[in-house]
């Protein structure tokens, strides 16, 4: 993993600066540049440009008209060297971009896992709440039940009234 570079703090005075002959660079900026280069290598635009350069290179080196300015005759050794050099730089840049993407993917997976755990806990809580509400509603008298009980009481009272008036 890339080394963390200390950021200078504005709320503290600068300490003694040590002079170093080692070149310093921001690894994050270098990584961003390598990712943009790797993205460009994977485009159709790059393939078209590279193919056009190769065709022009070969045509200029085999045409009879340009016989006096041939800089890379038939086996095209200089073109081969250019491709080898490009591949030598492209491969590590692509690997660096892939490593950075893998690190971002790890962070994303961890965030997704935490979000999923929170969602599961929330669903379990809501499920328990709904179950407790159902149990509470089961114990509460409903409107139809109360109406039925009142009608039964009225019927019973009517029967008593008839019984009292018949006697």
From TrEMBL:
The chain crosses the membrane at residues 46-64, 76-96. Keywords: Membrane, Transmembrane, Transmembrane helix. The keyword Glycosyltransferase does not apply. Pfam families: DUF1003 (PF06210). This is DUF1003 domain-containing protein. The lineage of its organism: Bacteria, Bacillati, Actinomycetota, Actinomycetes, Catenulisporales.
